Amino acid sequence: MSDYQFDVAIVGSGPFACFTALLLAEQNMSVGLITPEHSQPLDSFLNSLSACWPTLNDPPTRADVAHGHDVALYLNDFCTQGVHFFKNKFLPLINDSNNWIESKCLRIGLKDFEKEELLVAEKLGFSLIKTPEDGVYLDSTNSILCKDKKIFQDNFIQTLEKNKVQIIQSSAIGLKETQSKCFIDLNNKNKIECEVVVLANGLDIAKLIQRFEKYLIPMSDCLYEYESNRGSDTPPMRPLSFRASNGHICGTFIQNNKNLFLRISGPRFLLPGAGAGINLTQTKIEDKTFKSIEKFHKEIIFPIFAKELGFSSSEEFLNKFEFKITTKKILADCYPCDELPLLGEFGKLGKVLGNTGWLATGFPAGAWAAKIICDLILNEKSSHLLPRLRPRRLQSAFIKKHEDL
Ligand SMILES: Cc1cc2nc3c(=O)[nH]c(=O)nc-3n(C[C@H](O)[C@H](O)[C@H](O)COP(=O)(O)OP(=O)(O)OC[C@H]3O[C@@H](n4cnc5c(N)ncnc54)[C@H](O)[C@@H]3O)c2cc1C
After folding, report:
1. Where would I find the FAD dependent oxidoreductase domain in this sequence (predicted)?
2. Sign of CA dihedral 284, 276, 223, 293
3. What pLDDT, in 10s, does the model give residues 199-250?
């Protein structure tokens, strides 16, 4: 006997899970959202830069080589669609629009080969506009930046609850699919019975679907947040977001009255093991690693902020604001399947759906993937899905049941 019965159970509670839950609940589906014990939905969002990037994080030239030009353009556009959908659908729905701010979004090549890569990406039509500065390009769509991540999380959880999404605090440890139903075992010994499972557990997907192990490449990264409360004696400055060094470094700047916030992820390549293929979250990181990251910020990243924010030198910028570190963390997410956001069925019988597009595509892709997954669950097809990514065996008993009601 099951402890819970839902139309759809979603494993995980990151952005993709929460977007999907809300869209399904809006369609009167009963939805269970499974978040690990002692965690809240969108905790993973708090551990990010919280920028909605309008295009692929890594240079789109990479996807071009891996998947061909059409697919690479589709993937790049996937993120842009996601930003629009996030802004126009989710932010009004959760009443959080005032908590986000648009910013120009720069791509910066630091080394010659990175500049070359950006030049090729521009030529291939990847929505980049050359600026007069050497190696600096502007994305043709703005990014949007979250001012207060906790407010976003609170508003989202309230809306999930208002829409009767049931939040269950326990990890999924087992998954079974039969012709008619799916069953999930939870760590607290409870059982869930549902028509469809959506896997949204990111890096941990292989713990439930073993064959994913070989596709997953964990990536570790560092998150730094710097804050200054010395902004009151300066005219308001425009927000800024940039991605540099082929996506190894991301930075955002926001001014909120007298408080200034710089959020930086990277550089990944200074982490032990070059940051690729290793999950460092359980590893003790030596102080000297943090020191070298902070030195890199000072010498390479702060000058970018200073220049783009109109200061004559990095010293002037740093002396004026005396930024203090408020967050310093090593985190991991995943680099699956060579950047391809696989949308489709993962189980044997077509009742387990999911999305893997975690690292390189970020939240906006999660928003757009949620829209597509909902289309698939409700209609078995989505006009926004590249045929190559379409599930082959998605079962329709669930849809019929709803039609009969
Ligand atoms: C330092 C850093 C900064 C980043 N900054 C940005 C940014 O500014 N913009 C951007 O777009 N992207 C950013 N990203 C990438 C972004 O975090 C990911 O792309 C995004 O979180 C993926 O969302 P998701 O919902 O697919 O998965 P996740 O956010 O990874 O969520 C998966 C969830 O599943 C849960 N889970 C795992 N196993 C189970 C289980 N068995 N049962 C129940 N729950 C389970 C996990 O606890 C987790 O909450 C950043 C990443 C890092 C590391």
Report:
1. 7-375
2. positive
3. 999 888 889 988 878 777 788 899 999 999 998 888 899 999 999 998 899 9
